[in-house]
Design brief:
This protein has 8 helices and no strands. Helices cover 64% and strands 0% of the residues.
Length: 206
């Protein structure tokens, strides 16, 4: 006996592009609730309210999904960093402040994305997709380019932009992880902590 009209499950209707974004949002929610190891395309379909096969139209497997989440995080972070650096109303020192504080704040506000962007579940296992590499590598190169500019104008000391970018990135990653992992708990102090980091990197004659 077929269910009555009132008993039928009504699934949300998505356009093709909307569904991909909806699946990414649902995946991040599932990861936040139960961790990466408990995420599956089947559970994702159930959460998004679509057929079990629908996610496979966008992601070939779980790893492809995880890489897509990470790639989206890199795109958003890169867009924000680039916009801040191109802001002609701010000095180069102010731009460096915004970059440092913005990096840590992004990680704290988006822990699931951040963990995938820089975590071992993708990079340590060499599971990165071409889509992810195409956005992640240019994102880091942009960091190197910004550091080179800050060095050339005297905001940051040193003349090796790559090594300086690696060290600054390492410091910010460490701060971000301390917040994400619950070692640092007062997010109201993020700006104070990042300001301390900035004073350590900025050329004292600036």
């Amino acid at each position: 006996m077929s269910p009555s009209t009132s008993q039928k499950i009504v699934r949300p209707s998505y356009h093709h592009g909307d569904l991909r974004q909806a699946l990414l949002r649902s995946a991040k929610q599932l990861i936040a609730e139960a961790g990466i190891e408990n995420l599956s395309l089947r559970r994702l379909a159930e959460r998004a309210g679509v057929s079990r096969t629908a996610p496979y139209h966008h992601f070939s497997d779980k790893n492809d999904l995880l890489c897509a989440i990470a790639a989206e995080g890199f795109r958003r972070r890169h867009q924000t960093a680039a916009a801040g650096f191109d802001d002609m109303a701010k000095t180069m020192l102010e731009k460096f402040h915004d970059y440092v504080n913005g990096y840590v704040q992004f990680a704290v506000d988006n822990p699931e994305e951040y963990e995938l962007m820089f975590g071992r579940s993708i990079w340590k296992q060499q599971n990165s997709t071409e889509e992810l590499r195409d956005v992640a590598y240019p994102c880091f190169q942009h960091q190197v380019d910004m550091i080179r500019c800050w060095q050339s104008c005297g905001v940051i000391s040193g003349d090796n932009a790559l090594r300086s970018a690696q060290v600054i990135w390492g410091a910010l990653h460490g701060i971000a992880k301390l917040y994400i992992d619950g070692i640092y708990t007062d997010t109201a102090q993020i700006e104070e902590v990042t300001h301390c980091a900035i004073t350590m990197f900025v050329n004292q004659s600036t």
